[in-house]
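Hey,

The postdoc asked me to send both predictions to you directly instead of through the lab channel. I've kept everything plain text so nothing gets mangled by the mail client. Protein one:
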Amino acid sequence: MNGNNDAPAASRPRPASHSAELEEPLALHGGRPVRDTPWPTYDKGAVFVHPDDEDAAIRAIRSHLYFRYDHRAQKETECGRFEDELCRYFGTRHALAVSSGTAALALALMGAGVPAGSLVACPGFTFVATPSAIVLAGCRPLLVEVDDDLRMDLDDLRRRWRPDIRAIMVVHMRGFAADVEALAAFAAEMGVPLIEDAVPALGAELNGRKLGTFGAAGAFSTQSDKALNCGEGGFLITDDSTLFARAVALSGAYEGRLRRHFPDGEPPLTGLDLPLLSLRMDEIRAALLRAELTRLPQRLTLFHRNYAHVSQALADLPGIAVRRPVAPGAYLGEAFVFRVPGGDAGWFARALRAEGIDARNIGADDDLNVRAFWNWRFLYDTADPGQIRATLPRTARLLTETVDVPLSSNLTPDDCDDLIRAVRKVAAARETVLARP
């Protein structure tokens, strides 16, 4: 599938009215599903790719110059050009293309000089890459509760604060901005760096400012269903030249190659006292991403269009609580997340899947979802999920109530209408059951 969102959806019969649709039996109970075509997601090939992007990757392949450090000047390589374009897009002084978003997060921590063994505070609701990056940097995650809208809870962070916390890693989870302005102020108060895990929020803004630019460094992913997608990869952005130089050296700019990243003067360090971790991006991925970056505004518009359509239609639906942004428009729109208060979100997600909508209950017992912190067994001395949940009881309860639906930028308006109809249908069936004496 390409990035043309004007392609017609597969024709299918539609109910005559919302009232008729809500009277239909659930597909879970043998009724007719809302849709019988696959829900578009990246793993089924529903990616936003233009023929120009394919041509760019082929051009890089045919160059036979795949390693980012070759005979050319930095500004002539695909990686170098991509980094320059990222600096212009974000308005930052530096950008570094690397092998993954996890690598970008770890390099940001190490580049900021966070000592090995330190605690790094992060939210209890995030992808497993966040605590994994902290471990990769030689540090220890300290998990913090989230609020009703699944954002890092600053009040809980204050309660849990300890002197050996040496950094805060805030996450813009599922494309929704955290309250990063308040967290940046708190980090400054505590005298520690704030690192932004903007991995799932590339291009999103808060009050007109791009996510990833509020802290000492911002880290992004270009893997799978991200706003820029080359299969694997990531990058970090920063205005701190020393942090940047350390990250470059650690990523693998050996034997003086660090100088290529400082064309206007000498770098602030040699890098010889740092290990070489070989976390670089290659030229083929950078060429693909450069081409995709030219169409990023179009893709962001589609994300916002689809999310606004779905969220507005379901905002006041009884029985569910749609996740609210910290400020108007402060989200990417790549996922529709809502809670089902009452503890039957697992049933709700199963019913949506039966209707033809990909949906997951984040906290389902029968789904090893690595966004649920009790599945991060490498952090704990126990394998008992109940004991792990008890360390963050509020977050555990909220994730048990949470349903997550991926929203590809390739969704058509008809796809969005299918999602709306399916959620209404399942919610109505649930309300009918709850209303029985």
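Protein two:
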Amino acid sequence: MKLVVQRVKNARLSVDNKLVSEIGKGLAVYVGVAAGDTFASADFLAEKLVKLRIFEDENGKMNLSVKDVSGEILSISQFTLLADVSHGNRPGFSGAERPERANEIYEYFSNKIASLGVPVKKGVFGADMEILQTNDGPVTILY
């Protein structure tokens, strides 16, 4: 699995000009499921994510997690994170998990985050989504 984690002040996700999900302070998390990923890898990353200390404490140090600041997570499936651009100019996606299995792991990952005590909103798997977010920092972490 690959994650792109961005600290946000807010984020909104729409499909066909209809609002699907919206969060305030928290994390916008773009999730790419690779071929061969397992529920165990989703568990591991969900636990790392909710403990990731990238919010500032009273001294201005990145020392607090999304859970510590009562933040939310917007979980967005994005298979293009698995793009292979090592040959030519057109990305290849053979490293991405097939859609049915990828959706299963993405849903599991999102539900695992919620079970760890952080509110989660989701995108629509496989849809053409429009995401508007106000980055905070910016702070971007890659897993």
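Summary for protein two, as requested: The radius of gyration is 15 Å.

Thanks,
C.
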